Amino acid sequence: xxxxxxxxxxxxxxxxxxxxxxxxxxxxxxxxxxxxxxxxxxxxxxxxxxxxxxxxxxxxxxxxxxxxxxxxxxxxxxxxxxxxxxxxxxxxxxxxxxxxxxxxxxxxxxxxxxxxxxxxxxxxxxxxxxxxxxxxxxxxxxxxxxxxxxxxxxxxxxxxxxxxxxxxxxxxxxxxxxxxxxxxxxxxxxxxxxxxxxxxxxxxxxxxxxxxxxxxxxxxxxxxxxxxxxxxxxxxxxxxxxxxxxxxxxxxxxxxxxxxxxxxxxxxxxxxxxxxxxxxxxxxxx
Length: 286
Hints:
By secondary structure, this protein is an all-alpha fold. It has helices spanning 3-28, 46-49, 52-62, 77-85, 91-122, 124-138, 142-153, 157-181, 185-193, 198-235, 241-251, 254-285. It has 12 helices and no strands.
């Protein structure tokens, strides 16, 4: 058996062990607080964070896989559709809305930030002209602009997309800009000697050299995109997981809140893996 296989098994074992331990403490730990107050933190009170079993049961209800009475209805199309119709912001719709707005905010923010970074990175004149404005705007916490964005664009999806892309833009812009500045000038000079046009220099030398800087910003950019959307939904939204959390907080319903939070965690984790996979494919293809 190779060392790599042993290492992978050890990693898998400890991952599972940690997960089981956390879930066990979360589920039954607070019951032991009266005997071990120094060991069990107060925030494990089910009133605040619920219990895994309650969260799972609430997830089945919120996703209309089970009825409120605990009857499995996922295979009954009529019962499933009736359950979904009870709320315009059920878990499926809320997840879809948040995911869609996050995707568009991420895509537009990455695209615009990348193009702006390329242009200013290749033009010292434009960089000097726009640098004080970029620095000034970047110094404003983007979260502070979310209420203004909602006032301008309303409670719909547009305000969430704008909130998201404004956060993503600067993260990708600065990484792209720095990546372009770090491009080896000797490679550019050689391409000029070989007769490459400015477009060819950009495509064959500058962009590949800056690619690692851009790739390194994509995973945190998606996380920040998700943050921008959810914060916008906190402040004012018709639908979305952020609204589910705010409504659950208003009712004092920890299971509902934890279902939405864990759904956001799963979305962020899955998309991070997707971005890493795409990044690996592009690097190998290059």
